[in-house]
Amino acid sequence: MRGVGTDNASVMVSINNGVYQKLKQEVGNLVLIPCVCHSVQLAVSSTAEMLPRNVEFLISETYSWFSKSSSRQITYRFLFQAINDGADPLKIVQQSNTRWLSIEVAVSRILNQWLELQTHFETSRLQNKCYTAELLYGMYCDVINKLYLVFLKPYLEECQKVNKSFQSSTADPSKLLKDLILLIVGITRRIVVPGYRGDLLTVEVRKYKSPNIYLGHEVEILLTDLKKDNKLSPDNEKVFRNRCENFLFCLADELQRRLPRNVQVLQKVSLIAPEQCLRVVKESIIPLAKELGLTGNIITKIDFQWSKLTTVQWQNVTNTIEFWHEIASYKDASSQIPFQELSDFAMMILVLPWSNADVERAFSMLNNVKTSLRNRLKTNMVNSILTVRAGLKRVKKCCHDYTLPDDVPNQIGTMAAYRSVDQPSTSTAELEADDVDELLL
Hints:
InterPro entries: HATC_C_dom (IPR008906), RNaseH-like_sf (IPR012337). The protein has helices at residues 10-13, 19-24, 36-47, 53-67, 70-83, 103-112, 114-127, 131-141, 143-167, 176-191, 217-228, 234-257, 263-267, 274-277, 286-291, 296-307, 320-329, 340-350, 357-369, 379-394, 407-411, 433-440; strands at 3-6, 31-34. By secondary structure, the protein is mostly helical. The longest helix has 25 residues, at 143-167. The two termini are 37 Å apart. Mean pLDDT is 85; it is low at 424-433.
């Protein structure tokens, strides 16, 4: 066991009786990696309290207005097509109560359709004399609400981008933590005094607050235009700026607080990226090897192999996994593997669990397989179905284009289809009708 990924629950990471501490008693150099997807989600959710409640109300009520009414959707589509030369509108999505980052798509789509939505609610309040439509129309006419959404959009997009990187099964593991650090540094640099030379991952942002915080190009342009047209009073602008600044302070604090405790160790993982490995002058690999508990003899071999890595002309230098696979397969003139210890060390790093996304997907897949109508499925059958699905996904196939081996169709309808190589034959009486039907499917 090299590392353990956790969702940051106290039962997992508690310093006294947490699961990680129990495992560390047997595996002394076990690496703890709190799930970054959960951390970013919780950070943004906590920061959302800095914004006015009407912003979240506007988004949720806009979705509710269209979600259960086909006539409203059709009416809005005709209006949108008339304004946009026949183009169809994108659907307004729902904000999840447990996943506040889901609001990012909703914010983008509402901003892109702001004029059309405002016109739609104006028409609805006059024709239907609906109070909800009148309330929403008033909110869409309030420029402050639009300002908050314009301010939110880039920060939500950046957080969502990092979140999706950690959820991806094809992302480069040597660069994932760098994406998270760049997010924190980018936000912190906007709010601290220019020229600050300290560590932006640990700085107390309120202590080094910049006197003039830049809220973003679109926000500043919109504020300038509104002040020229006398649509925004100085008091309202001051309140708006204070709320946005508090949002940035809180977001930076939350992201810093939720960084992995061993971030200094995890940052060194980027050393195994091809662009780092193949530099003539590069950082030593010894500190990272010590952190992962390697012995002196192995570290000596790794250090020597690390220094001569640039002497070979490697082909796969864009993808980290393919790069180290090539190194592990490389043989010299005597058919020996000259980089054996170094490639084994790199593989040890590549298997670290940077995200719990695959586990979460397994939960969702299980809910799709074992539904209330199929609640009699036994554990073995559920495991078989999940294994088939995971296998098809791994080889990038679908049930529609997967080619069965020649002998498999001949076994359908016979007991051979239900026998395992390592298990004795099962009688027909031991198989339930539901299980047989599922296997045949």
